[in-house]
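Notes continue from the previous slide.

Worked example: a multi-chain complex. Inputs as given:
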Amino acid sequence: MKIVALSNHKGGVGKTTTAVNLGAYLARAGQKVLVLDLDPQANATETLGLNPEEHTSIYETMLGQGDISRLPVATNLENLHLIPANADLSGIEVDLGADEHRLARLHAPLQNYKAIAPYDYLLIDCPPSLGVLMTCALAAADEIVIPVQCEYLSLIGLTKMVDLLNEIRATGVNPGVVIEGIVLTMADGRTNLTEEVINEVRQQMNSIAYDTVIPRNVKLGEAPSHGKTILEYAPDSKGAEAYETLCNEFLQRHGAV
Amino acid sequence: MKIVALSNHKGGVGKTTTAVNLGAYLARAGQKVLVLDLDPQANATETLGLNPEEHTSIYETMLGQGDISRLPVATNLENLHLIPANADLSGIEVDLGADEHRLARLHAPLQNYKAIAPYDYLLIDCPPSLGVLMTCALAAADEIVIPVQCEYLSLIGLTKMVDLLNEIRATGVNPGVVIEGIVLTMADGRTNLTEEVINEVRQQMNSIAYDTVIPRNVKLGEAPSHGKTILEYAPDSKGAEAYETLCNEFLQRHGAV
Ligand SMILES: Nc1ncnc2c1ncn2[C@@H]1O[C@H](COP(=O)(O)OP(=O)(O)OP(=O)(O)O)[C@@H](O)[C@H]1O
Ligand SMILES: Nc1ncnc2c1ncn2[C@@H]1O[C@H](COP(=O)(O)OP(=O)(O)OP(=O)(O)O)[C@@H](O)[C@H]1O
Ligand SMILES: [Mg+2]
Ligand SMILES: [Mg+2]
């Protein structure tokens, strides 16, 4: 099982939308996918049609209690399971804030689970922050995919993500973690701003930026209100096509095609 | 000095854009405005044309050191000053995480400063999170303005904000804090999703939702890359007009006209 964190401390860049919809197309392609909702907002949980209040989150596991293999629940899509989030997760920042081993709190259980997990990919949807939950995700992942909105403020956050990852690597908890890719999201073909951001990202990070660019498409914003992925809600939309293309590119990069 | 926090744990909803541009128009209307950048991303600092690395943030003040009245720096706009952010701020989550008096760490110095501060309004730009920085801001503010993007995932975050505020009030640190207003942002007049979210917010929260709705306008996304507010960058744009109207409505609500 490959652990991939969708992470960017900048808010509203498409982390949840990418985790859920990339997950959906990977599942349709026959991959076994587990999404871990690590955001107390529980947006991935709601988007996949589940009620956060009714489920157990990864919270207890990170405090050393509970058995992670009992947490995954089925979604409406075959091959796509979820470890839900709920409001308890926001307690992690305080509960683990002063814990010097906090970086291992997600890494250790996930490493143990890897050996028995029936999944090909684990996609972690991270909250927008520089706090404990996000750093634990970076310390637990094999690779990071960074969604970057085609906006200036999102672009300047990229260098901070690279610095943060170098810090995590230096702690020795997860020295092998790499940035696997950068996905440009919410591209509006009519504006120069979008072109400028895409050009800048391709210049700074070309070897890891995905060729697939996700366009701004209202269907992607509507789908969560129906508790559906774009695959179920509007499979013929431009948003769906883009995530399908992204999925194919992701599989190619992971040698699965 | 009235302390107003721009807060919403949902990311990318327009907190920074509203803090900076509402601040700019209030300053142009002759109000003395101080923006406090409480986000380690330091987006408000960059948008106002300053370099985060070169300045002292509120970090030391929250740890009980330093004198807050030495922190404000001038911006390019008369009547608009800033307490910058820098990367040190992200240390607050860990440094104050286990401190049982953490909710008073911003409240106390700001209350003391209120008596001598030469400003009419202090606008706090909050990070997207449920962590220590955000809760300290809610505990320090007189009133909260919540930007809500015209998207479903932003709408469902609203009830969490209301719950969080009730929790803060119950701690007794800041029993008088209220939600002063909700500002709808990034409205795209061509989509039903925008209309549905606006209708839902007006139904749920009509007495506090602002009449002014901020449209999606690329100039608002371009301005930060030039280190300018919309007032300086594109004063005739739809984005500028909307923030000017919001400023007038804000002043009316605060009995200043
Ligand atoms: N390509 C797109 N086109 C249109 N809307 C989009 C697109 N991608 C995401 N959205 C919408 O934009 C908003 C932000 O996206 P999303 O919530 O996935 O970002 P995020 O990075 O997970 O946010 P947070 O930082 O709060 O976790 C959501 O309302 C989502 O539905
Ligand atoms: N009305 C608007 N029209 C177009 N773009 C906008 C508008 N308001 C904000 N933006 C852009 O959308 C992005 C998100 O806005 P902003 O950064 O202000 O949100 P935020 O809530 O402060 O985000 P964070 O949660 O990361 O702090 C930014 O790139 C900003 O320039
Ligand atoms: Mg999200
Ligand atoms: Mg911001």
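Summary box: The longest strand of chain A covers residues 178-187. Residues 26 and 140 of chain A are 21 Å apart (CA to CA).
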